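Supplementary Methods, section 5.1.

A reviewer requested that the exact input to the structure prediction be made available. We therefore reproduce it here, unchanged from the version used in the analyses.
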Amino acid sequence: MIYQSMQGISIASAVAVILLIWLGTLRNPFKAAYLFMKELLTSRKFLLLFCIMVGILLLNKYELQIEENMNYHKDFTPWVFGLEGHFVQHFQDFFHSPYLTPVLVFFYVVVFQSLLVASLGVYVSDQNRVFVLATCFAIIINYTVAIPFYLFFPVNEVWSYPPSGASFLMLEVFPNFEQEYRPLSGINNCFPSLHTSISVTMMVLGLRSGNRRFGIMTTVSAIIVIFSIFYLGIHWLTDMIAGTILGLIASNAGILFAKLSLRSQNESLLHRQRKMFGGL
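The structure derived from this sequence is encoded token-by-token as follows.
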């Protein structure tokens, strides 16, 4: 079963990546993997950027250990609850359905991370170098901004704060979530919502990439993931708003940095060529 262990989620995610690349390009998804490896081996700039992105993702993984070693015990959850009250509880009460929960959990734990990986595969397959680099830049920006908030502005998930009245609906279909998935995501790593910011980032990049099909896919995914963060009782409305702003900034900055990076690379290449031919 998908929701019994991280192994099941990993297998489902791998299958989802393959399907998303195929749906986004209508080409052989395994060729995208080949092109991706080729790009890593032939472009030092992309290799460096990719390594930085992987490094920041690993830092996020170890953020919980860093947090444990810090003598910092602030909790801003009551302040956030004071701003928005029982919004999430009312949201859950209105939409809760045993048929909807498995679908939203699938998007939250499988599609979300699969789409991030698939984006690189789609843009590599499309030979869209600007958006390959933009994706890496945007992910780095998202996590670089979010991690300090997780360390110094801790906000607990909605369901874990009793006055909120919200329930953790994730457990209805993923009963081992706390044992299997929780080590990857701290209970007080709420503000801003990275599920929101990354989803908005993927949506903006998809819509601006020129790949209309993939733009629709990332938009649908973003809407469902943002819906799920409230439905499952995880994030506050404040988290979503901050995540949306972060995603918009990161995606547009990522595109800008990618274009500047490629322009600098092209100018450097042109300069070398002029030097070479000028010396003949």
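The chain has a mean pLDDT of 91. These observations are discussed further in the main text.
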